[in-house]
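Good morning,

Attaching, inline, the backbone tokens for the sequence recovery test we're adding to the shared suite. The designed sequence is right after.
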């Protein structure tokens, strides 16, 4: 763990790439990656693109048996969807082979190579119709571990056939443009995140003129159409956790601070811009600093039904486990019918919990047709919802697609060698 934190400290003088996460949030995700990789050998890599919502989840294994657990030795490294019919996967056909980008224009029935020598094989879809990838080059400056890395963000609007690097400009813009999204500008670890609006058509990132009055921790990965959510803390020493919501793509903001002591992390999820859940990971005052990560922690859930203006506590019986000690916004999403879905990750292995009564009670349930014990590796978010109405999951050998989140179709991805 010391080595990981040392590397983060070393990067303090290097501008980070554009991201939806603060440095602390990235650090938390990296630490969780480190723990899971050591704790679990047999893994199924799962990423979810959740849009309109999950109308029903089932837990009965005798009704829909889960697919066999994969060993993580297949070709699929990442997957993304820019809409229901256009799917993409980063693959590597063999050890030592270069990664390639595959694309499907028919919902996963057939695949073609879109990009040879596709770097680390990671691809994302931050907005409908847009693919995003990050490349790295070595800079002139050096640190303890060698030359410092410079990261470049590239977007594709033609299904991964051609790419354009995003450029940061100084001129402010009033709102996030169509096909765009919100994220942090490049910044050093000791600096505050400044929100920028990304315009993939123009190929640029521009500072947002109206910034929410909070120290930004992360931009929630939710569909931009009903509104955008940002989590963080109130400015000042010992600031309370806070959430900000914009219904008009960044023109105006509504900020709410949670008057809760000892909050370790805050996660927020919403699908319609009105109903939303906040999970506060709180620590008791008398917790032994040398105790395990989850010792003395509890999950406190709050609900809003007015777009973040007011919040009320739910889950009176504390039925939602604290898991590994932290929740971030990528661990949770809200379905169209109001179902709150949460991915629990701890040493027992990742598992799903849901609430269909506005957070009054949470129960363990597995979505039909998905692996019993999904395991997420790397820094990718387990739940993504940037593309409305699309559900996508992947393991080492296939992409799983669903139109409604209830029934899933397994779509094998060819191993390009």
């Amino acid at each position: 763990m010391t080595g990981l934190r040392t590397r983060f400290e070393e990067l303090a003088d290097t501008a980070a790439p554009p991201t939806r996460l603060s440095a602390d949030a990235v650090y938390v995700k990296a630490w969780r990656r480190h723990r899971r990789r050591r704790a679990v050998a047999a893994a199924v890599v799962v990423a979810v693109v959740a849009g309109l919502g999950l109308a029903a989840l089932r837990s009965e294994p005798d009704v829909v048996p889960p697919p066999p657990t994969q060993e993580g030795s297949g070709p699929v490294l990442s997957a993304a969807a820019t809409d229901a019919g256009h799917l993409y996967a980063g693959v590597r056909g063999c050890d030592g082979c270069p990664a390639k980008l595959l694309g499907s224009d028919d919902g996963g029935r057939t695949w073609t190579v879109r990009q040879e020598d596709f770097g680390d094989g990671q691809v994302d879809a931050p907005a409908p119709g847009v693919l995003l990838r990050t490349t790295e080059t070595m800079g002139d400056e050096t640190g303890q571990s060698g030359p410092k890395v410079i990261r470049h963000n590239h977007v594709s609007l033609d299904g991964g056939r051609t790419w354009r690097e995003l450029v940061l400009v100084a001129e402010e813009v009033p709102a996030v443009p169509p096909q765009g999204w919100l994220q942090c500008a490049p910044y050093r670890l000791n600096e505050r995140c400044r929100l920028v609006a990304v315009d993939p058509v123009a190929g640029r990132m521009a500072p947002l003129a109206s910034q929410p009055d909070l120290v930004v921790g992360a931009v929630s990965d939710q569909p931009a159409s009903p509104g955008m959510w940002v989590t963080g803390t109130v400015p000042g020493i010992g600031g309370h956790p806070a959430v900000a919501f914009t219904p008009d793509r960044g023109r105006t903001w509504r900020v709410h601070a949670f008057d809760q002591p000892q909050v370790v992390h805050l996660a927020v999820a919403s699908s319609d811009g009105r109903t939303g859940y906040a999970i506060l990971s709180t620590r008791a005052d008398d917790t032994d600093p040398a105790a395990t990560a989850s010792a003395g922690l509890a999950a406190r859930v709050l609900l809003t039904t007015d777009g973040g203006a007011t919040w009320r506590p739910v889950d009176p019986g504390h039925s939602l486990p604290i898991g590994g000690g932290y929740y971030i916004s990528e661990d949770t999403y809200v379905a169209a019918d109001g179902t709150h879905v949460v991915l629990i990750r701890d040493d027992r292995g990742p598992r799903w919990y849901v609430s269909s009564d506005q957070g009054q009670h949470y129960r363990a349930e597995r979505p039909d047709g998905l692996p019993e014990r999904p395991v997420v590796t790397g820094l990718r978010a387990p739940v993504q919802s940037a593309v409305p109405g699309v559900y996508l999951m992947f393991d080492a050998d296939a992409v799983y697609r669903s139109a409604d989140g209830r029934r899933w179709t397994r779509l094998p991805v060819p191993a390009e060698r």
